[in-house]
Structures are given as structure tokens and as C-alpha cells.
Specification:
The protein is 29% helix and 27% strand. The chain contains 4 helices and 15 strands. The strands form 4 sheets. It has a 5-stranded antiparallel sheet. Strands 1, 2, 4 and 5 form a 4-stranded antiparallel sheet that branches. A 3-stranded antiparallel sheet has the order 3-12-11, with no helix packed on it. 50% of the residues are buried. It binds cobalt (II) ion. The site of cobalt (II) ion has 5 residues, from loops. Cobalt (II) ion binds next to loops.
Amino acid sequence: MINLKSDRELTLMRDAGRVVAEALEEVAKAVRPGITTGELNSLVEDLLQQRGARAAFKGYYGYPESICASVNHEIVHGIPGLKTLMDGDIISIDIGVEINGYYGDAAVTLPVGNIDEVSQKLIDVTARCLEAGIEQCQKGKRLTDISFAIQDNAESAGFSVVKEYVGHGIGRAMHEDPQVPNFGRPGRGLRLSPGLVLAIEPMINVGGSWTEVLADNWTVVTKDRTRSAHFEHTVAVTECGPEVLTRR
Ligand code: CO
């Protein structure tokens, strides 16, 4: 668990976060029918190289690529490759970087061309879940205030929350304590204090919450093959409220 001790450390976390934000912004511009997920991965690799950043996912427990690209019923950890995006798809892109020993991690779900109404609602609600979670990142609040805010937003909209995968502390490692579940009763767990940095990442499904992992040992999909969305930001708790390090 990181506890930012100096302005210098906060500056380094901001640097890592800024590059993640830039990479997501650039790759988002390239998302369209006809492009492959592997091409999106290459584009991000080029940008990270230019910025002197290391792709944090590559080689992590043997993960083979620099981004995760999860399409439609894929929830997270989709491996980019030859898959061509089609009009009507939704794609979740997740990027993690390390610069000078500090990490940033963020994800967005984007429409490919024209998408159906339910998919658009799923994207809107999941983005709102993340914003509701971020709002709870205040000094004096408790960890599960974040969890509850996310679950409440998702379920009020008729969607379900993925429970097997969670957000996490982030700092000098990509995954630090504490785990940040996207569900649960409020008012429990760690009391939030300035210096704590969390990666908050709701994964929300149109249908049931159950997941399974494909034969590639990475791609997590919904058991019922309904669509799923994923948004993530790296957020620092400060004296003056949440600071979203991966937002431009
Ligand atoms: Co993460």
C-alpha cells in the first residue's frame, strides 16, 4: 500500500498517470470498424516508447501484450491480436504503465461505430459507477463506501457487478493492498487517508455476474455471454479530495 510521503512521489505518480491518460486518448481515436485489436496494441506500444514508459502488463505473470482489449462479452484481460472490430461492437481497453518505479492504470469502454441502446446504457452506467466510486475517495471515508457506491449505481440500472475481479492499491507496484471490491455494505474496511492511491475499476454486466476464463488462460468472459463494460482510473486521496491521476 502506498502512502505518498512527499510532493516528489505525488509528481511521479502524476507522470505515470498522465502517460496512461494520453495513451488511452490516442488509442480511442483509432477505434473504428475494420481495425484489429493487435493494431491498437502496437499503437500504444509506440506511444509508450516515445514517452519512455514501460507497459506494465507485458510479462506480468506471463501476459503476452501491452494492453488488454476485451470485446463485447469479454470482461477483462482480452489479449489483443488478429480480431477485427465490427460495427456495433464495444471494446474495453486497459493500459498500465511504469515510469521511474511508479505505476498508473486505467481503462475505458468505447463503442465501435453505431451500437445498440442497451450497450450504450451499459457504457454510460459503468462510467457513472466509476465516477460514484471516485467521489467516495475522501479523507475519513471507508474503503467499502467506494464498493457500495459502485454496486448501487449498477444494480439500480438493472445491471450486475463482477465479483471475482476487483480494484487495487497502486503505487510502486501495479497491484498493492488493499483490494477494492465493486460491491458490499458501506462503512467497512480501511479508513481512507491522504497519500493513499487506488485503482478503482468497476466491471459491469448486462446479464448475470458470473464469469469464466477462456482456454487462453487470460480472457475473462461473462458466463451467459451478455456484454460487459469496464472503466478504471488511478485515484489519489488528498487533503482536498480525490485527485484522478489518469485523467487529462
Ligand atoms: Co487495475
